[in-house]
Amino acid sequence: HGAISFKDVHFAYDAARPILKGISFEVPAGKTVAVVGPSGAGKSTLSRLLYRFYDVQSGTITIDDQDLRTVTQKSLRKVIGMVPQDTVLFNDTIAYNIRYGRPGASEAEVTAAAEIAQIGNFISQLPEGFETKVGERGLKLSGGEKQRVAIARTVLKAPPVLILDEATSALDTTTEQEIQTALDVVSQNRTTLVIAHRLSTVIGADEIIVLKSGEIAERGTHAALLDQN
Ligand code: ADP
Ligand code: ADP
User: Fold this and answer.
1) Rg of the Cα trace of the chain?
2) Whole-structure pTM value
């Protein structure tokens, strides 16, 4: 489920300055495709188009052969889960923030999702556990802890399509590796679009697309791209 296709996609925030100049690629159902490239190349714009924050100016994006322009944002958000670079949490309990992925999830399901996101340890050290309030008037979480909450939320939501938009870019190396491990579990057998800065963080992707100035400069597996460069 959730095969993604970009066909000759053009996009500009401002007509005078094209950002994406005819992008075509596919993410087969259950596979992972990573988009890497320098800052400003248009990588995040791809994820914003897939999430329908904006619509393409020409070309098409489809999920399971359905044109995104015929899908409401509401139904799209049931299909797509997004882990951004900097997760913003609600000023509420950790449980509330995780459960946002699927309101009505049982306590056992929240705990299981937290285990997959590897926050069990951190939560067990808090006096109020999952009921600890976070945000402005609660506990201030580190970047890595916030990402773990976002991952737990996504695990609960269990969307067929996942966007990881620089989900580990803001973290230190040790935390990045831990979060990456959790993300690898979440993206398994799920159609996943990964946006990343560096080739070294997307070794396991089925295909890697190198985006430069809004065009696909190179594509291939990690090994193939290393051979060429
Ligand atoms: P990347 O993710 O590869 O760093 P982005 O997709 O975020 O690149 O941005 C591509 C280009 O689009 C950049 O030059 C950026 O300044 C511009 N851009 C991004 N968002 C907007 C926006 N909301 N309005 C105008 N320009 C934008
Ligand atoms: P939704 O229709 O699911 O509310 P949004 O575009 O508002 O979609 O949010 C996309 C995702 O970002 C949500 O599923 C949620 O995980 C997260 N999110 C949105 N707003 C907030 C917020 N204020 N605090 C924490 N997370 C948020």
Assistant:
1) 18
2) 0.87
